[in-house]
Design goal:
This protein has 229 residues and is α/β, with parallel strands linked by helices. The protein has 7 helices and 10 strands. This is ABC-type transporter, ATPase component.
């Protein structure tokens, strides 16, 4: 299985007034196509910063990031936005759904950046909702759905453009245990049955058990990478 993400000597520095804070220190990492990787570490360890760099939401201060052979660290803002729209699906802790839109219309949002017409967008959204088990909730608005169902809508929105890479930031952090397990099982199925490469930030060791590998960060440094049994 080939390498999808190549991170070489990556650092990230934020400036706070006259002070410079280095959040990531010379990270080197390969993520294989089809992997399900959990990023773990204490608060402030840099795991969300690394996730944002992998997903092209932020740019490194030094080093290089390649995804599917493309150097995303060299892209400007417009090119990076187009690249994200075609290649990356995002799942966040708090769903980030538009409250006035139905589940179907929320899932369609990423497709507004494409050349698909209204009928094609509707069809693709229906396919994505069926994949996450919510085809019967397409007309419901977020306030008519449970937290777990809202996160399923968010996952459908993340996969509707058929991205190669899913980046998930604490996707079960706002859910009860049963709903969390359902979401993690869904992510695992998207990885194993549909070939999605997934990088997930989590503080929950039980959530990390659903991944095929864990990566631990501490104070911006990679301290451990281990395969799970």
């Amino acid at each position: 299985m080939g390498t999808l993400v190549e991170i070489r000597d990556v650092s990230k520095v934020y400036e706070r007034g006259k002070q410079k804070v280095e959040v990531l220190h010379h990270i080197n990492l390969d993520i294989a196509q089809g992997d399900f990787l959990a990023l773990m570490g204490p608060s402030g360890s840099g795991k969300t910063t690394l996730l944002n760099l992998i997903g092209g939401l932020d740019s490194p201060s030094g080093g290089s990031i390649g995804v599917a052979g493309q150097r995303i660290d060299r892209m400007g803002g417009g090119d990076l936005a187009k690249w994200r729209a075609s290649n990356v699906g995002f799942v966040f802790q708090f769903y980030n759904l538009m409250p006035m839109l139905s589940a179907q219309k929320n899932v369609e949002l990423p497709l507004l950046l494409t050349k698909l017409n209204a009928a094609q967008r509707k069809r693709n959204a229906a396919i994505a909702l069926k994949l996450v088990g919510l085809e019967d909730r397409a007309a419901h608005k977020p306030n008519e759905l449970s937290g777990g169902q809202q996160q399923r809508v968010a996952i459908a929105r993340a996969i509707v453009s058929d991205p190669t890479l899913l980046v998930c930031d604490e996707p079960t952090g706002d859910l009860d245990r049963q709903s969390a397990e359902e979401i993690l099982t869904l992510l695992q199925r998207l990885n194993r049955e549909h070939g999605k490469t997934i990088v997930m930030v989590t503080h929950d060791p039980k959530a990390a058990e659903y991944a095929s590998h864990t990566l631990h960060l501490d104070k911006g440094t990679l301290v451990e990478q281990a395969a799970l049994a």
